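Good morning C.,

I know you're traveling, so I'll keep this short. The sequence:
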Amino acid sequence: MSCERKHEKLLVFSETEIPAEDRFKREFLDFNLDEPMELDELPGKRIVYIERSRILNFYDFKTNKAKVLAEFDLYFGSEDGLQGMAVDPNYEKNNWIYFFYSAPGNEAIERVSRFELIGEKLDFDSEKILLEIPTIRNCCHHGGSLEFGPNGNLFIGIGDSTNPFESSGYAPIDEREGRVLWDAQKSSGNTNDLRGNILRIKPEEDGTYSIPDGNLFPVGTPKTKPEIYTMGLRNPFRFSIDSETGYLYWGDVGLDAGKLDSLRGPAGLGEFNQARKAGNWGWPYTRGNNQVYKEYNFDSKKSGTKFGPENIINDSPNNTGLEKLPPVQKSLIWFPL
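The tokens, ready to paste straight into the viewer:
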């Protein structure tokens, strides 16, 4: 694992201004990690980083040594485990650190929790569970990234919890009974589900959270989750937030279809997206610059009408939210896979 310090501003150089390579030094801080997932800095002291299997590590700047700090009690399997981590912007005052992990036991729950990290001790008894997300402990797309943005808002990336491998590389919208795992309309296309979205919440001192102004659905809107900031995402596994503008950026890997099928939809498209405000990015109905899929009957193998980016109706039996979805936003960048 390597780590390089982040700067608050991105510096752009012309060819004649590019700094010489010998001005930079790459240091390897730790080796042989088991699925390292996220890292953050305890201001001026240590770098903390997690392994999906349950491990919290730190690297001490004074001793230049890495050490295991704590091991979580959690469920580890499929794509579940210790997925995300973020240090509170006011850590030097409150000693708070946040984790996204799979709760132990048989109930399929993802948790976003706050703990106190004082010195070299993570206090498990200090846990405050902010949010619990029901999911499916099976393939695929669990996301799990945590990042703080402006005004102390915490962003949470969650995948669509959908198996894409029985849809011939096109939209997984299988509405047959017992096929909820293969229908992304239950999550990404569902205004009343936390999965397939990037959430935005404001953690409060008592371990609860409030909803910032400007999320996609105002608090109290029937059949919606007010935590949703951007919906219609496949697997926002990692994302970033511009520290000056507050704009949200994320990548979203597309499906495996190698070519356009006039009866199904576009070839697999990867995306890079920018959200300047809350919105819907269309999955599983569109990809890229709003290239649309068609309705499809998985029993008869027959296609229906094209989905319309301005008027998408989610009438899946697995949908618990609004039927008419917000208009779909185009990707910032899209490309064939």
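Safe travels,
E.
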